[in-house]
Amino acid sequence: MAPSDRNRSQSQDRSTPVVLVFHKLQASFSFGVNNFSPKRFERLLTWLELLGYDLRLGERTAGQRLICTFDDGYRHLADVLPMFIERFGIRPVLFVPTGWIGKANRWDYSYWLRATPHLERRQIRELANAGVIFGSHGHTHTDLTAVSSRRMQIELRQSREMLSDLAAQRIQAISYPFGRCDQAVLEAVEWAGYTDGFTMRWPTPNDSKLAQGRIPVYGYDSPLSIQHKLGDGILNKLERVKATVTNRLSAGTILLNRLRRLD
């Protein structure tokens, strides 16, 4: 695939970073669509560099900035991310549900098929030292739009305080669990001191700082489909529809948690 600016949207604002969202980078089989293997991730970063994207957060070049974010904070990321940081100079942003640190992902339906452990405290410190930026993913990975005001404040405050202590960073960003937020959530997030919020919706020019869209990368994606996601036209619209349908499947996990009283 030849590098070409024609692969990008002609209307895309190059001053605005492209933000991708991943979940798992496991080499082994993983249930669901959220896994993108390390080999595929390496090929993707190589390809994005060839297209001229700027992967080195904080180091400005002529290319458009691209940021890789990871939701859920799984333990295996501690084994694979350092080599990508060293080779490509990326600064990944990891959003961690702090109530599940060191535990398996019992909040997710895939747990009943195959458990996936979350990062441990030690690993968070090590990744922070390696250059990873941390953000909140709530405390218990609960749908913030469905909890009381008091519970929401606890979710936001606890996760921020724990991560600030573990990563020795100022925690400014949050990725909303399941990508869900409403006006009450946005107001609570701003009150809690966050400056950036990320959803699972497709980015638009009208996004606010506390409700920024991201481009999801799923296990079924190929270089061609990702090219369409970064471009425009009818195939870009098709990728948007696919991503919207895929994200809505998370409602099954939300319902399961409510039935099990984990939410």
Describe this structure in words.
This protein is an alpha/beta fold. It has a single domain (14-260), classed as Glycoside hydrolase/deacetylase (TIM Barrel, Alpha-Beta Barrel), CATH 3.20.20.370. Helix content is 37%, strand content 10%. The chain contains eight helices and seven strands. Strands 4-3-2-1-7 form a five-stranded parallel sheet. 36% of the residues are buried.
- Strand fraction: 5-15%
Question: What would you give as the CATH superfamily?
Answer: Glycoside hydrolase/deacetylase
Strands in their spatial order, largest beta sheet: 4-3-2-1-7
Total number of strands: 7
Number of helices: 8
How is the biggest beta sheet arranged? Answer: 5 strands, parallel
Rg from alpha-carbon coordinates: 18 Å
Q: So what's the CATH class?
A: Alpha Beta
The SSE string, one letter per element, is EHEHEHEHEHEEHHH
* Helix and strand composition category: alpha/beta
The CATH architecture category equals: Alpha-Beta Barrel
Tally of separate domains: 1
Mean pLDDT: 89
Could you please say which CATH topology applies here?
TIM Barrel
Q: What is the share of helical residues?
A: 25-40%
Global shape = globular
Straight-line N-to-C gap: 45 Å
